[in-house]
Design a protein that fits this description.
The complex is a heterodimer of chains A (114) and B (112). The relative contact order of chain A is 0.33. In chain A, the strands form 2 sheets. In chain A, strands 2, 4, 5, 9, 10 and 11 form a 6-stranded mixed β-sheet that branches. A 5-stranded antiparallel β-sheet of chain A has the order 1-3-8-7-6, with no helix packed on it. Chain A contains no helices and 11 strands. By secondary structure, chain B is mostly beta strands. The chains are: A mainly beta (114), B mainly beta (112).
Chain lengths: 114, 112
């Protein structure tokens, strides 16, 4: 089955700096890669996702890149702000419409220092 | 539109007991997934249901089971509880299988 590795497990940056979180997946057939943000004591929420037919996707200060050959994808946050502090989870799934489930990485705790 | 509702939010059980957790998905969502969240292990997939059928199951022992009703509400059951079952159990619904997950606030289970 699918296995997702996520690095680093913790990341501390100064406000205004960029943050990068990297994930690798094992199943080359996986074709859907979402990122979820979980603030302390709250539920995980989708912040951005990418499908295997796209190499990069941006949404304001957040971007995700996908390298299918190397089987890895990354989350990039620019101009970090204290409210970006949270645990971020990457995930991968094989979306065939009638099969598939999201397999998550173990998370990255991002701390943005003012 | 109401979000995903999980009950109970908190519960304490002792080893050997069983527990049933309930999840009401967002109206119109027919896919429900369950995850176990523990510190250091992230979100581990338990199972996914769609139209009352279990479509996928994670790598958990048979003590973990679930079901989905015709109104898309779902329950999961853990029998013969062990200390290691202490965790936050998250339910998520989706408008379609393998679509965006909308999580509930979770049921925090403590096994003593």
């Amino acid at each position: 089955g699918e296995n997702v590795e996520q690095h680093p497990s913790t990341l501390s940056v100064q406000e205004g700096d960029s943050a990068v979180i990297k994930c690798t997946y094992s199943d080359s057939a996986s074709n859907y890669f979402p990122w979820y943000k979980q603030e302390l004591g709250k539920r995980p929420q989708l912040i951005i996702d990418i499908r295997s037919n796209v190499g990069e996707k941006k949404d304001q200060r957040i971007a995700v890149t996908l390298n299918k050959t190397a089987k890895h994808f990354s989350l990039h946050i620019t101009e970090t702000q204290p409210e970006d502090s949270a645990v971020y989870f990457c995930a991968a799934s094989l979306d065939r419409g009638s099969q598939g489930n999201l397999i998550f990485g173990k998370g990255t705790k991002l701390s943005v220092k003012p | 539109k109401a979000g995903v509702t999980q009950t109970p939010r908190y519960l304490i059980k002792t080893r050997g007991q069983q527990v049933t957790l309930s999840c009401s998905p967002i109206s119109g969502h027919r896919s429900v997934s369950w995850y176990q969240q523990t510190p250091g292990q992230g979100l581990q997939f338990l199972f996914e249901y769609f139209s009352e059928t279990q479509r996928n199951k994670g790598n958990f022992p048979g003590r973990f089971s679930g079901r989905q009703f015709s109104n898309s509400r779902s329950e999961m059951n853990v029998s013969t509880l062990e200390l290691g079952d202490s965790a936050l159990y998250l339910c998520a619904s989706s408008p379609r299988p393998s679509g965006e997950l909308f999580f509930g606030e979770g049921s925090r289970l403590t096994v003593l």
